[in-house]
Prior knowledge:
The protein is of the alpha/beta class. It has helices at residues 3-12, 19-29, 32-37, 40-46, 50-62, 65-74, 89-92, 125-140, 153-163, 185-193, 214-223, 238-248, 266-273, 283-289, 291-296, 309-316, 324-331, 335-348, and strands spanning 77-81, 100-105, 114-118, 144-147, 168-171, 197-201, 227-230, 252-255, 277-278, 322-323, 351-353, 358-361. The protein has a nine-stranded mixed beta sheet, with helices on both faces. Strand 8, helix 13 (266-273) and strand 9 (277-278) form a beta-alpha-beta unit.
Amino acid sequence: MAEHTRHWIGFNLIRGIGPARLRILLDHFGDLERAWIAPKSALRAAGLGEKLAGEVVRHRIEVDLDREWERLERLQIRTLTWRDAAYPRRLAEIDQPPPVLYVHGRFAEADLWSVAIVGTRKPTAYGRRATQEMSGFLAENGVSVVSGLARGVDTVAHRAALNAGGRTIAVLGSGLDRVYPSENGGLVEEIVRRDLGAVVSDYPLGTPPEGPNFPPRNRIISGLSLATVVVEAGIKSGALITARFAVEQGRDVLAVPGNIYGDQSAGTNRLIRDGALPYLKPEDILDVLDWARTVQYPDRVRPVPEVGLERSLHEKLGRDAKHINELSAETGVPIAELAAALTVMELKGLVEQVGGMNFVSTGD
């Protein structure tokens, strides 16, 4: 096990060490190996606080990182950190992405083109049909389908993508050795065996599927995706949490209109009322993201808009990379809005991200 990965896994096992605190440790110590062996006083000086610094010291005495690595290898689970080139690029773009991902299967370059499909655990026949049609269409058009492996809409979405021979990403709210629901174990095995995607979690092995784990899981689902589609959802559905995260991340949200008297559609109809785009046919997703032109004419660049934010960004970008923070300072536009605009420009072939939210122009 690389020392780089070893200590990331160690800190990921400690409750209370999330993206923000891990960033503090990296900034203070330079790398996590030095942070792992640092005395309690140094951890306090880094900003952890008395209780958490003590927890780190206690934990590193008790945990056997070699044994943890052996468990991962035995289960054929990879780990990806912020510093790994294979870390999903879309997820890396969001605010405070998970520092460590556990991956069964693999991500592929094609997964840059991903759409999340989420919804109720008890879909109607209408909801199942809409999910099957949508997921199958996306898979046939080279778009990866992301969902949460839950019963209902999630399971239908994963299955339809596989049946179409496409890729699918399942994000769990538990450790990868605690597949939930258990009846989807066969679906997990098929995703991996057919090399058609990945099963992913940011929770360590052994983590049970407890309620508080699922909202953070939903944030990963939307973060991996360029758009989120909610099929059927009640007013208190977790799918609406995923939609809210997508909005915060500057990603598109679509919702399937439903019966105004049906509980399963109360959440989706409200999303549409509040500004989500209505999903009426599979092509709507491609239209929203302007993919049709990109897929059909991958070597052609759309003309630069004459006005608006895209024009302004194109003028400010050249062959020398600029970070999104620099662009925000120059334009006065919030980072979330810039990220959405740059994503669309990237799909149009106008700009290219060269890593770490740095962008260059692809035009003359």
